[in-house]
User: Which sequence fits this backbone?
């Protein structure tokens, strides 16, 4: 019988995240680095590993990683060097990757993550630069493995966390935060499904209360946030059960199998590569001057947590609304543009949080692809704020706008939902309604003031919903009081 309970164990998790940088060209070769091009159309003699070719550092690779380092509170090394990481694989013609080993450019940072109900600081051990390998394609030719070298030499940064994470939920929150930061900085698009953000997870367990870490396994092949969470969860229980059964965790690399929902062994420690790292002789050290640092600091955008606090202070938003609005940089931009265009803060908040977000979800699009301009939406909010349409008509017009990109006023006219505020019209209408309901009018005059609602309702009905309710109220009062 098991004498040890799962609760007696604690997991220790550290993540290694690779982010593909949004530079125009490759890391060390003057050739385009665009995603999704025809195979082997973005290669240069350098990517092919031709003898005699010499690498050249892409300036934006350095600038982007410094941005990331500053945004994650790292110290930036004034001098760092590149290293060769040697291994043999068909998608790596050079036989080595240019990377950084002993002196990464960014070290010793942290980010704060929010998990349900608490905030936690997670250490960043290091962030270094490297180049990607090409891609082996196994499923297009029945006999051969094909190689596409478009990706060979595209710039990556690797962000290594301290083993500070304790649960799969914390790992998920950490990864989400990294994604948010790279997107705010515009250094990476953060798309895990397309592979521009990749994550390896190191997982071990230890008896609760013990300081010494257990033996870890490294998980690979998780191509979504949910898979990272699930794979870590599976692995924690696999290790605990192994230990409970009297076994021992062995250091190995394991692959997450999405269809079977389990991790399985890829290679053991004995089969691990010896990369024979040595300093890259063809590239000079990277020198970061104070001037360069200042220049890049000045370019940093307002990051999500700062923006969130500002939203609460400046627009009196609730914490939760501010979090949702700043989750994505471009949604926050959109919201702020709408506020400045329309001048209506509250109405902008609810329009973005309910209607705009609903459309993004329904159509699976990002805010950048949202079909309506802030000018259009501002017109709509103005129409509503000046009481020319009711709140339900605002909704109708918004939906119609998605089908037909026309001004709110034109749509309101076409849909016949403009509220009537004409005084002569209201005079007639209210008088008719009062004449048609003499008993109620009598009772109202005798003091049954609750009948107000009844009269306003009748006026709205008689106008087919187009009367301005505020005016209806005033006019009923005028004739009855
Ligand atoms: P390697 O280069 O072999 O992958 P590192 O020392 O760079 O090894 O560690 C990689 C990651 O593993 C880091 O994120 C680190 O926090 C994490 N890590 C190290 N030891 C453990 C452990 N015992 N359990 C869980 N994670 C660990
Ligand atoms: Mg590793």
Assistant:
């Amino acid at each position: 019988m098991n004498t040890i309970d799962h609760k007696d164990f604690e997991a220790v998790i550290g993540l290694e995240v690779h982010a593909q940088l949004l530079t125009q060209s490759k890391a060390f070769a003057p050739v385009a680095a665009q995603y999704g091009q025809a195979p082997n159309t973005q290669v240069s003699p350098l990517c092919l590993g031709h003898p005699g070719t010499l690498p050249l550092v892409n300036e934006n690779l350095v600038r982007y990683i410094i941005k990331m380092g500053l945004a994650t509170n790292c110290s930036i090394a004034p001098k760092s060097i590149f290293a060769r990481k040697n291994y043999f694989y068909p998608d790596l013609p050079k036989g080595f990757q240019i990377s950084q080993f002993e002196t990464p450019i960014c070290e010793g940072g942290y980010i704060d993550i929010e998990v349900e109900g608490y905030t936690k600081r997670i250490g960043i051990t290091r962030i270094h630069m490297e180049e990607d390998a090409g891609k082996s394609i196994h499923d297009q030719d029945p006999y051969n493995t094909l190689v596409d070298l478009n990706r060979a030499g595209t710039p990556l940064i690797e962000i290594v966390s301290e083993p500070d994470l304790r649960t799969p939920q914390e790992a998920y929150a950490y990864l989400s935060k990294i994604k948010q930061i790279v997107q705010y900085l515009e250094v990476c698009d953060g798309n895990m499904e397309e592979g521009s953000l990749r994550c390896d997870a190191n997982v071990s367990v230890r008896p609760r209360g013990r300081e010494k870490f257990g033996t870890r396994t490294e998980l690979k092949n998780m191509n979504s946030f949910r898979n990272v969470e699930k794979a870590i969860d599976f692995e924690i229980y696999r290790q605990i059960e192994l230990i409970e059964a009297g076994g021992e965790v062995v250091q190995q690399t394991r692959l997450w199998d999405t269809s079977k929902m389990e991790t399985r062994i890829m290679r053991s420690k004995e089969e691990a590569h010896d990369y024979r790292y040595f300093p890259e002789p063809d590239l000079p050290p990277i020198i970061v001057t104070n001037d360069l640092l200042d220049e890049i600091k000045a370019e940093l955008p307002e990051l999500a947590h700062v923006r969130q606090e500002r939203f609460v202070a400046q627009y009196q938003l609730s914490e939760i609304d501010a979090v949702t609005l700043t989750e994505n940089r471009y949604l926050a931009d959109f919201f702020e543009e709408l506020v400045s265009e329309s001048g209506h803060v509250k109405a902008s908040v609810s329009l973005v949080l309910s209607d705009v977000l609903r459309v993004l979800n329904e159509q699976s699009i990002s805010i950048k692809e949202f079909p309506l301009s802030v000018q259009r939406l501002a017109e709509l909010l103005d129409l509503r704020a000046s009481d020319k349409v009711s709140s339900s008509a605002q909704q109708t017009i918004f939906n119609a706008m998605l089908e037909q990109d026309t001004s709110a006023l034109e749509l309101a006219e076409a849909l016949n939902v403009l509220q009537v505020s004409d005084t002569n019209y209201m005079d007639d209408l209210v008088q008719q309604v009062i004449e048609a309901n003499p008993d109620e009018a009598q009772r109202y005059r005798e003091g049954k003031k609750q009948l107000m609602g009844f009269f306003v309702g009748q006026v709205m009905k008689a106008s087919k919903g187009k009367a301005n309710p505020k005016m209806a109220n005033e006019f009923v009062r005028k004739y009855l009081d």
